[in-house]
User: What shape does this take?
Amino acid sequence: MDWQTRPRCDQTAVWPLLCAHTERAFNLRCAFEQDAARLEHFGFDAPPLWADLSKNLIDAGVQRLLNQLAHECGVPAHRDAMLRGERINASEQRAVTHVHWRWASKSGLAPDEQVPDMLKNVSGVVPEAAAAQSDMLAFAESLRANDAITDVVNIGIGGSDLGPRMAVQALRASGHASGPRVHFVANMDGHELAELLPRLRPTSTLFIVASKSFGTAETLRNAQSARDWFAAQGGVDTARHFVAVSANHAAARAFGAERCFGFDDGVGGRFSLWSTLGLSIAIAAGRTGFQALLAGARAMDRHFATAPLPRNLPVQLALLDLWYRNFHACASRCVTPYHHGLRSLPAYLQQLEMESHGKRVDLGGRPLAAASAPVTWGQAGTNGQHAFFQMLHQGSDMVPVEFVLVRWPAHNLPGHHDKLLAHALAQARALMLGQAGDAPERDLPGNRPSTMLLLPDLSPHSLGALLALYEHRTFALGSLWGVNSFDQWGVELGKRHAGEIEAALHSGETGALDASTAGLLGRLRGC
Ligand code: F6P
Assistant: This one.
């Protein structure tokens, strides 16, 4: 099938059959009673991950129809086009190249590592990737090898912050990070930078200005303030203490960052941690750690590229996402990682999923017939159990929950990890079974769906596989919905308004503004 003429999910022959299926009540407890092999059927192996999808509101019949949907929508053809480096980001006329960065360095590949056919021409798609990556890793290693730099500050926002911040946090918690301290500053709110600066010394700090466009207001403001602070503290040799990571070398140089680690336009911000944008990760985890992260992601790439649709975990998760959003009207999904190191995973996924799929039109500009991005939210377990789990168990809305479990902890405090795992399994079981209480307020309806993702550990390899799983799932869902998962035009308008409003805040000239904004500015100026 030609990926460009693929039908949208609601235009397929199988769509009405799926609609008919939602009429039928489905009971998880009965499903397990009737099918002794349910776990086997809905357990998925995508090494190093294993996933239990059995506590979801589907049976073999629905699964068959969903697989047919993926097939009719041409998801495999679309996937192959992305991997071959075709320009699937239509609104920006670009290829989508984040996967290619994981395969760029031949020396990073294990000698017996199999390269999927579609990824055999990586150097033709992103010719600069291998050299840029090797340069970035050499720089990270040189920094780790001497004590001159004790603190590294990554200044960036959105995709230039969330992925690296989450990955460094995860690797630090699991004992896979060492070297200089790595900090992250993102917010326009100066409190974030102001809190960090007094803890730094200009002589031993490296600032990484991370911005694909090198035009993002928050990043430029923070970078400028950091440079002013550096100069005010008597810092010399700005070129040694400020480097950039960007696809816009000219703007980085104009800022004064002589050294710029580049990457190509095809790497979307929210997919960029594998490129040179992962410099902060490489500094924390070292060459070996970063390469292991890439290797884990490649294991998932191979699975995504080659596993048949019915056993393809990213595709199966995307189909479930669609099933709940479009056939059960679920307006949100909850992600709850049971590992302190993954506490920022929900924030990272919010950008990955909602910036990718918060869209109202398809690739051809036509209004979507089916609802798109639900709200992604959550926080680490068990903290969430004492905050929002009440709503998951007894609230009026059904929210599919995704648990992420890590088999082995990196600490040796006795009596914690088994309890942590037990709590996660207990919550999923309680969501499924519910209970008939002796009073209405003690009734838990049950039949509430959940998915379990199981990692053996939180090593760079496992983390890489987990993140690549989420990326491919996002791609597959966009492919089913027929939306472009790789643009984000919706965020531009607010940025434009901000310039006009800041000028009005200074000048008091509010005539061109609406009454509410003008009134608020009046109050702010009067305070
Ligand atoms: O907010 C929109 C956005 O463009 C994101 O897509 C991106 O990750 C973020 O801003 C930061 O952009 P940049 O890396 O260009 O500074």
Notes: The longest strand covers residues 332-338.
